[in-house]
Prior knowledge:
Blueprint lengths: L1 H11 L4 H19 L3 H10 L7 H11 L4 H10 L4 H16 L3 H8 L7 H13 L4 H10 L10 H9 L5 H14 L2 H9 L7 H9 L1 H6 L5 H17 L1 H11 L5 H17 L5 H8 L5 H13 L3 H9 L3 H4 L2 H13 L3 H11 L5 H9 L15 H7 L3 H11 L3 H11 L5 H13 L3 H9 L7 H4 L5 H10 L4 H12 L19 H10 L13 H18 L4 H10 L1 H6 L6 E2 H6 L4 H20 L7 H5 L1 E2 L17
Antiparallel strand pairs: 1-2
Amino acid sequence: MRHFLRYLLYAGLFFSCTAAASVDKEFLAARDDYAKGRIDQFERLADKIPDRYPLHIYLDYWRLKSRSASTDEWARFAADHPDTPLSERVKLDLARFYGSNEDWANFRRIADQLDKKDLELQCYGLRARLAGSDRSAIVDGLGLWLTAQDLPSSCDPLFASLSNMGFLTDGIRFARLRLALEAGNLPLARQLVASLPPDGKPDLLNQAGRDPEALLAQTPATQIDREIDFYALSLIAKKDPDKAARLWQGKSSDFPETEQRYGWGIIALAAARQQNPEAVTWFLNAKDQLSPIQNIWKARTMLRYGRWLDVYVSIISMPEATRNEEVWRYWMARALQAMHVTDKANQIFAQLSHAIDYYGLLANEELPERLENLPANNHPTPDEVEAAGQRPGLIRALLLHKLALNVDATKEWDWAIRSLDDRELLAAAELARRAQWYDRAIKTAEQTKTTHSLDLRYLTPYRDLADTYSDQNGLDPAWVYGLMRQESRFMDYARSGAGARGLMQIMPATANWLARLMGFRRKAAPEIGDPDVNIKFGTYYLKRLLTRLDNSTVLATAGYNAGPGRARRWQASIPLEGAVYVESIPIPETREYVKKVLANAMYYSQRLGLKGSSLKERLGVVPPQTDTPSVAGDAGGDN
Length: 639
């Protein structure tokens, strides 16, 4: 109660706006002094800031950090500030400390309080269980071992124990070696090769990298030789799948039959990612010896060529968790539908149709009688919004956002909403909307399970600009909004790792190129963060893409994300159903981007009261490749 009063008093009773602004400045100055190691100045400023200031917890945290507080002091801090992300951070550090010292009693006490445990803590936890003679930790430890990724050093003693106990067999090590080589994790592969009989051959990996064909020409004498041959085969297939197939045709007899099939799977995977039609044959050569990722790409390839029975076989061969993902449930139903197993297909479509997303829309459109797919548009009441505004975590998050401390603000917000019910989530989303913190408003509204608000999920800020420039370029404003929502969540300060900026995420070089096309005499890059300039340029570019890419919304959307040259290369020699084209896009980011943008456009069409069309109509049919010159230059390359 004491903490709640602190925030309530700050919010309305103790501070005038002027006083609050003054304290905010002092807080930012204290933060700057702490970051630069000016601890005496930090302490002087921190002493001036009232205890009831919502962000005082950060000052307390920095004080402890600056003087290397004891574990007891950190434990008291966590207890005094329960249910905050800073408390969670402190508990994580304490758990790591106790784990590294093998103080398993204290480790378990702290780890049990954590919301999530990373890999480092998972390994400490398994070691604690082994120390307590929990035999089930052996199975869990072996499950953790079988990964292509590097694991933290806290896992090394765990695996040493499993090895000493005789559970890390050569067979399990070879299984991980194959995973590492499939993923291209060569440092891990070298470690594994060095640990395997006969005496390891880490130099073979270097040979494979230098001259994979020469290595493949040698006769494999051991299992390590064969695994590294598979790696060499994958390197050849990535550059030239047809050459790899010719080589494997003559080489595969040196391998057991199951491994011959696995080799065909390697070649088929590389070919599928390049959309080489021979991938169909090579996947069939592999039969049932496919890894999980190879099975996924087999399904995509068979979709592209309309082989519905093979699509079905690929999906049922996937691991259960993958098979139950929305994407594969939808395509399973489409395969069943194509094979005239209509009742079963419609059952799956009906189950999927309630989701507010791409596959929910597509599934609903496949039903013989469409369900009402637009959920009730709920709004939080004034009392609910007022109650949300009194939550300490949301108060801290909104204040941090106001101070442009967006990393901490986002952590506070996400922590504060993690256990809210649907009505509370909508109220929090409304708070974020009012603060023009649009990405948190959208993300929060998206987390509701049964009580939804399309108004909050599909916000329409910058409406005048979006409508004006969509109209000028003859574009569907719902599509423009759908793309903008996906690019930036309407945060005008958004900047990608590659340097794209603003609401429609335009690269500076592209902005300058567009400025020349549009007749501007000056460079536009310095102004591209301005919403007016950004939407003006983004819609102009989108229209240019649409015109040059066969007026296909799918191709233009893919081109906006990955470059028009790539969008062209992904076309087939035959017309493709739009949804099939999208599913076979080789770049995961672009594949998901196109799905989300076009689903967004559907919901924006409903929100804006525009004339409706189905998602299938929006996706349309992607025309076959032509001899038209590449349009990559229109985007300044395939950025």
